[in-house]
């Protein structure tokens, strides 16, 4: 009945390679988003053109963007490759690339942090089992120090200048698009890439570093708004709310709140996949929004993560609120009008409820591919814990910020209503605490979660928003 039911997930090729690359870049950036937001707020408040200019406090801006943020990225990238030792050497070599350039070295940190950790990892593997007893600490400390120092010198003299030159070329290209008025056309690529979960590679590999360079020079950057604009998705959801049928129509209002205020854009992807023509509405909205941003000189001081309208307000510089809202509203209106026409001219029936379910499953499959995960059984795994054995329930997703936060909020309300003495939290899958009694993840991530918390009970779910496992778990813990 529907193409979605018979399509097989793409398991190889260019798309998966880009997703894997984007996942790696995202892994370096996402854990440090709090630091980026802190820098953005300090910038928006205290620079000379900020909301409350303060010359003294504004001196924090330069050191944070020049040293703190790149070193955090370098450390995180190194840690992903080789644990704490990899993180330390990643930070050391990142400082070398910082000192060797005159612009913020985010691209440099993403390169040298993991690379330095990989070199140290190979060295550690080569001497594994060959260290004389009692010399382990001495050799481990001196090896990381000597290798780190040597690589820092290489980064200072060779990598820093090369990355700076590359950044200047990319920045010139973006500036050319802005000067010629062609920047809105970038959304022709960005909007489909979002639905295919290729946005991490675009955001963290290209747009993010360029936006930071631009924001450092001018105090704001329109590049932050290319992918994160909530307007196109909002227009599509509003059109379904007014012109959809059945469950699709009734589910749209909740999706609007989650998307627009929560900043979880993936909530509207199933609505596009169940009617692929609507990608035209997302593209039209994105192009119109970026054109409006360009027309009014809009920009943000830092990345709005997640892409919520609330984050947009917090990252908008003084005097830029009207320009920001104009772009979001125009994107919403254009996306809504195109979606309305497409929905009114396509056949809709109550069977669309099944279409939405199939599309949602496809989104979860695509998201799993983008995170390098394989599907697991959707049923509960491991031995069930009794009421007396459960004091902490942990929701976990890849970054610990989006879907797991929604699921934790829903279950927390149910737990509180049942007056259960249970704590419900959400974390990244790599940060699952050791005292977790029950771990709840999407079924595609359960195997990874089980490796992180082998002694916990693990529950796999399909949908963080409306899983029957929540009520069954509360009922079990109440008995």
Report what the structure shows.
The protein has 19 helices and four strands. Helix 17 (403-417) links the parallel strand 1 and strand 2 (423-428). It is mainly α and 479 residues long. Helix 3 (33-46) packs across helix 4 (61-99). It starts with a helix and ends with a helix. It has a four-stranded parallel sheet, sandwiched between helices.
Give me a quick take on this structure.
The protein is mainly alpha-helical. The chain has helices spanning 3-6, 14-29, 33-46, 61-99, 106-127, 136-180, 187-195, 199-218, 224-228, 231-243, 246-260, 269-273, 279-296, 309-315, 321-344, 352-370, 403-417, 446-452, 468-478, and strands spanning 392-397, 423-428, 438-442, 457-461.
Q: What is the distance, rounded to the nearest whole angstrom, between the alpha carbons of the first and last residues?
A: 43 Å
Main pleated sheet: 4 strands, parallel
Output the helix-strand order: HHHHHHHHHHHHHHHHEHEEHEH
Strand order of the largest sheet: 2-1-3-4
């Amino acid at each position: 009945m529907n193409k979605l039911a018979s399509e097989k997930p793409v398991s190889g090729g260019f798309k998966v390679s880009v997703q894997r690359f984007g996942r790696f870049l995202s892994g370096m950036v996402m854990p440090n988003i709090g630091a980026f937001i802190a820098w953005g707020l300090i910038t928006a408040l205290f620079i000379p053109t900020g909301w409350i200019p303060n010359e003294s406090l504004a001196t924090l801006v330069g050191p944070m963007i020049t040293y703190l943020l790149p070193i955090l990225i370098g450390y995180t990238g190194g840690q992903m490759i080789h644990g704490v030792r990899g993180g330390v050497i990643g930070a050391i070599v990142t400082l070398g690339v910082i000192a060797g350039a005159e612009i913020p070295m985010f691209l440099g940190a993403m390169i040298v942090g993991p690379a330095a950790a990989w070199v140290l990892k190979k060295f550690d593997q080569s001497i594994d089992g060959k260290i004389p007893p009692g010399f382990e600490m001495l050799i481990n400390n001196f090896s990381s120090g000597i290798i780190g120092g040597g690589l820092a010198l290489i980064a200072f003299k060779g990598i820093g200048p090369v990355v700076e030159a590359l950044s200047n070329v990319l920045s010139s290209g973006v500036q050319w698009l802005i000067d010629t008025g062609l920047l809105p056309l970038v959304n022709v690529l960005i909007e489909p890439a979002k639905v295919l979960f290729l946005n991490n590679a675009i955001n963290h590999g290209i747009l993010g570093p360029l936006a930071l360079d631009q924001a450092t020079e001018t105090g704001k950057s329109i590049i932050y708004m290319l992918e994160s604009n909530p307007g196109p998705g909002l227009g599509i959801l509003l059109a379904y709310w007014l012109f959809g049928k059945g469950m699709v129509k009734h589910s749209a209002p909740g999706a609007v709140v989650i998307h627009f205020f929560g900043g979880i854009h993936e909530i509207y992807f199933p609505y596009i996949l169940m009617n692929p023509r609507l990608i035209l509405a997302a593209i039209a909205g994105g192009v119109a929004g970026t054109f409006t941003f360009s027309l009014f000189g809009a920009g943000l001081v830092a990345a709005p993560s997640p892409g919520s309208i609330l984050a947009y307000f917090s990252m908008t510089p003084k005097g830029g609120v009207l320009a920001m809202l104009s772009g979001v509203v125009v994107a919403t209106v254009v996306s809504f009008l195109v979606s309305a026409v497409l929905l009114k001219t396509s056949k809709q029936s109550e069977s669309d409820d099944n279409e939405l379910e199939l599309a949602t499953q496809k989104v979860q499959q695509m998201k799993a591919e983008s995170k390098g995960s394989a599907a697991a059984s959707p049923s509960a795994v491991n031995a069930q814990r009794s009421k007396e054995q459960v004091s902490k329930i942990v929701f976990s997703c890849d970054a610990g910020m989006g879907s797991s936060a929604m699921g934790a909020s829903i279950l927390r309300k149910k737990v509180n209503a049942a007056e259960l003495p249970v704590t419900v939290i959400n974390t990244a899958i790599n940060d699952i605490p050791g005292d977790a009694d029950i771990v709840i993840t999407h079924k595609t991530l359960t195997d990874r979660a089980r490796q992180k918390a082998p002694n916990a009970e693990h529950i796999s779910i399909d949908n963080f928003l409306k899983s029957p496992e929540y009520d069954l778990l509360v009922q079990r813990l109440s008995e």
